[in-house]
Structure prediction request, 751 residues.
Amino acid sequence: MRGQEWGGHNELSGVVHGPSVQAGVVHGDVHIRTGETAEQQLPWQLPPAVRLTDRTAEVERLERHRALAARRAHPALATVSGLGGVGKTALALAWLHGLRPDFPGGQLYADLCAQAPTGPVEPAHVLGSFLRGLGVLPQRVPEGVADRAALYRSLTADRRIVVLLDDAATAAQVRPLLPGGSNVTLVTSRRRMSGLALEGGYQVHLEPLAPEAAVELLAATLADDRVATQPDDARALVGLCAGLPLAVRVAGARLAARPQRRITTMVRALTAERGRLDALAIDGDHGVRAALDLSYQGLPAEAARLYRLLGVHPGTEFGGGVAGAVLGLAGGGSGGDPGPGGARADPDGAWVDPGELLDVLHDANLLIDIGEDRYRFHDLVRLHAMGKAAEDESAAERAAVFRRIADHYLATATRAERAIDPRHPLRERSYGPGPVVTEDFGDGTRAALDWLERELPNLMAVIRRARTTEERDISWQLADALGPFFLRRKHYDAWHTSHAEGLAAARELGDGPAECRMLTSGGQGELGRGDTARALEMFEEAARLFADAGDELGYARTSNYRGLAHQRAGQLDEAAELFEWAAVELPHCGDLRAGGLARLNAADVEFTRGRLPLAAEGAIEARTTLLAADDSYNAARAATLLGRICLGDGRPDEAERWLSGALAALREVAAHYETARALDALGEVAELRGQRELAQGHYREALDLYVGVNRPGPAEGVRERLRRLDEGGAASPDEGGAASGSGDRGAGDRG
Prediction:
């Protein structure tokens, strides 16, 4: 209700920074928490269920196992094994979707990619995805597998969830992914997962469909009277498909597209095709291969070409942008952007719509639609597409297709890089002969970050594949483009891997500048994940390379980075010397902004040493330089330091002015760590004034943010201050964390 309806007075004037609540009358307790913190989410990640035929007995066995586990208050773990294409995932989805009313805490899904060309997915990656699905902010996801698994078990211990781990390679891959609590986990694999017996794994092995059930599935796929009027041919057809549901659906989809064609025609064709493929059969999947070959032969020429060229894609899923790239379609806009209606011109000038071709492949049961213009292959279909590419395309054409795929990801990632950090020094990218097709992910930092998050598995697959081909330049360039993303989202494992691959590629190419970029950017990742020694080693190696090349600017920038590593290690004399030298040298080399950053870092060292007048002088100089360089973020960092200096000098009113101004700027750019530092100091200002509740509010928000960006040291300091306040104590003017040096400067700055 409006305030005036209560006869009250409710006005708000001036400038409000951050969240606010305006109310005329409030009864009861009001709790307001700001900043990005982890929130419990309900993930519903299972793909849609498909029609299930004749698996009643298996579903009943799984349900009996679950009920028994529930009575014993144990988790329910089951594995479904069988041939490729036998319907393991269909069974899993049908059963797990039916459990939703009893498990309202959510559904988690991961394709473990046992058959993927790039190898099975690492458990660490899956755990990171699960944690984010459960509401953990990217910055809060721990680095190691053990820590991720522990947090995952903690978050799922009191929730009622189901987990589907699809296409597992080994029991060792599965174990870290088992949730806590009395939840349900189902694992599918071509192998019998006897290794999960110690975890209580219950095994269900799927055999191919019985002839009657396979005929029923064929009839449902055709949705006409041909099975009823041609029963003998229908039985012969499903027999040639070996009773494998995937093969039956693929063959049925081709017949469904030709309503006048008799089933016997398909029987004759499949008989001949199966005989040709018998020698190529793997694990009994010859029925699938024969059906796939016939479907492939029946595709329109452009759809068939798209199908086989998609087999070159190194990842597990893709969208329309990738389809346009593999076909070499030139867009109607600049930089390979899509033309009108998504149609693009092929090399001969004809207009082709990749979306329509993807629909053709989906209708033929050759692609799985996973939503939002995203598709993936069944693993057997991917292998078939790869085989067709090897048969029907030359090695040179396959290499050109991979380059277009890689260029697509590089161009779009570079666009995202600019959106996230416009000041990131950008070396000109090198592309293949093209055309280069970029993806429209929207506008703004958030859209760029979300696109990179979604595509990270594909980007990593491209980086690894490129390293082993003639396209090594893609490997380091794509790793470089991911730098600002890693700084924001803290995927330290991917950061480490991508820059290791990029560094190896740069060295193999003999590209000194690229090697230096991988060393400095990769070193920041090592610094962020706590390996200070390795970070310093990488920065010093880059410094040697810059010196040997006579690159004075590059060398001066590494002095700033080396100073950060020494500061993090507590070696303040070495850090101060490097910062002072860089603060003088960088402006002489033409980089005023980097000089301002070095001056700010030097001032922070002086503050840590307790030399407050020198620290204030340096911070003011740095802030002036950074404002002139239009770097409001780092100017706000300088203002935070000035506020902390004033606080340490016993001037809380002046400290509050600096800190409040800094806080507004830092919130605007979602700089969580620096926001926490400003809040931490404002909490101390409030304590000194006797404003207990305000101090507690600042500290609690700072604590959330410190935890969110994996800063345990500052977080523990805030916890101690909160404990003291809860016990009735208060800070003295010369104690507290805001007046101590952080030793944690600039890990997010690229200097």
In short: Residues 1-39, 276-284, 332-342, 731-751 have pLDDT under 50 and may be disordered. The chain has 31 helices and ten strands. The longest strand covers residues 76-81.
